[in-house]
């Protein structure tokens, strides 16, 4: 059985963060282009064109798509047959420090102490990392999805008791309307239903990582996604609040069984839809994907 190097893990997590800052996913480029093709508002069409051009320029010139580089957030799936030759969590911390020291252009200091408001590049529990097990796998999968002001400020959660689908959808729309255009639309909307307080938020965050255009395997959720997609785009906020039809690129919903109390969590990924993933194999191979 092979061993996954702590040094390689440190390198890959740093690379994922940098790549997520400088290149928007291909499905997101396609969604922006599709939205532009059917957009009825001239100002919104122009705004979508600026977004597409900005993404292209950042990729060609190796620059950030947005100056708000956010803070690093990682989702790590660990195969149960994986062996490591050193620390795992510390490797991710060290990878972030390596990136801060080397990345060009430099990143702003966005890591904030919540009690003193002091800002820097390091802090307690930073990077934010969630671990999950993959039964009988001999590899690890890592997804980096940095959270910045636009994608992080307007997330919300409420706990209901035996809610109907209508109650859940009304709550999602309440969160969307409160955010308005302040989360830098068109956004991807993630919704988590059920489980517990913390698990619903995890489902919502994982929802924004789903590829745009993917089909929800649960018919009841697929129908809900369709209804909310239409309702959110009917709000008229449009790209960056310029008005128009494109306020969301996708609505992705998941659920977990729970008690009679039902948490509903809603979160957003801004128009850049930052996410980048890699699978590390025990022989040292690294497969990057979006």
Characteristics:
290 residues, alpha/beta, four-stranded mixed beta sheet, globular
Walk me through what this model shows.
- The protein has 290 residues and is of the alpha/beta class.
- It folds into 2 domains: 121 residues; 121 residues.
- It is built from 8 helices and 13 strands.
- The chain has a 5-stranded mixed β-sheet.
- Helix 1 crosses helix 4, helix 2 packs antiparallel against helix 3 and helix 6 runs parallel beside helix 8.
- The chain is globular, with a radius of gyration of 19 Å.
- The chain starts with a strand and ends with a strand.
- The model has no long low-confidence stretch (mean pLDDT 96).
The total count of helices amounts to 8
Secondary structural class: alpha/beta
Q: Oligomeric status of the shown chains?
A: single chain
Helix percent reads: 25-40%
Q: What is the domain tally? A: 2
Low-confidence stretches: none
Q: Describe the biggest sheet?
A: 5 strands, mixed
- Round the mean pLDDT to the nearest integer and report it: 96
Strand order of the largest sheet: 6-2-7-12-13
H/E element sequence: EHHHEEHEEEEHEHEHHEEEE
Rg over alpha carbons: 19 Å
The N- to C-terminal Cα distance equals 28 Å
Q: Name the overall outline.
A: globular
Task: Work out the number of β strands.
Answer: 13
């Amino acid at each position: 059985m092979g061993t996954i190097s702590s040094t390689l893990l440190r390198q890959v997590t740093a690379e994922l963060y940098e790549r997520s800052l400088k290149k928007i996913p291909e499905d997101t480029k396609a969604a922006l282009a599709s939205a532009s093709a059917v957009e009825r508002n001239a100002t919104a069409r122009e705004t979508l064109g600026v977004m597409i051009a900005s993404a292209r320029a950042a990729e060609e010139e190796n620059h950030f798509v947005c100056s708000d580089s956010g803070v690093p957030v990682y989702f790590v799936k660990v195969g149960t047959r994986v062996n490591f030759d050193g620390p795992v969590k510390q490797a991710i911390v060290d990878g972030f420090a390596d990136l801060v020291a080397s990345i060009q252009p430099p990143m702003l200091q966005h890591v904030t102490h919540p009690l003193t408001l002091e800002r820097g590049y390091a802090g307690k529990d930073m990077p934010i990392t969630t671990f999950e097990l993959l039964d009988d796998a001999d590899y690890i999968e890592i997804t980096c999805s940095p959270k910045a002001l636009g994608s992080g400020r307007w997330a919300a959660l409420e706990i209901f008791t035996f809610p109907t689908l209508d109650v859940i959808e009304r709550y999602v729309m309440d969160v969307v309307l409160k955010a308005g255009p302040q989360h830098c639309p068109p956004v991807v909307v993630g919704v988590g239903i059920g489980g517990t307080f913390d698990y619903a938020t995890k489902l919502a965050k994982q929802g924004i990582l789903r590829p745009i255009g993917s089909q929800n395997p649960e018919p009841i959720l697929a129908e809900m996604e369709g209804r909310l997609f239409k309702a959110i785009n009917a709000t008229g906020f449009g790209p960056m609040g310029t008005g128009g039809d494109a306020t969301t690129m996708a609505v992705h919903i998941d659920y977990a069984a729970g008690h009679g109390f039902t948490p509903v969590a809603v979160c957003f990924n801004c128009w850049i839809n930052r996410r980048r993933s890699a699978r590390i194999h025990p022989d040292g191979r690294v497969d990057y994907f979006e």
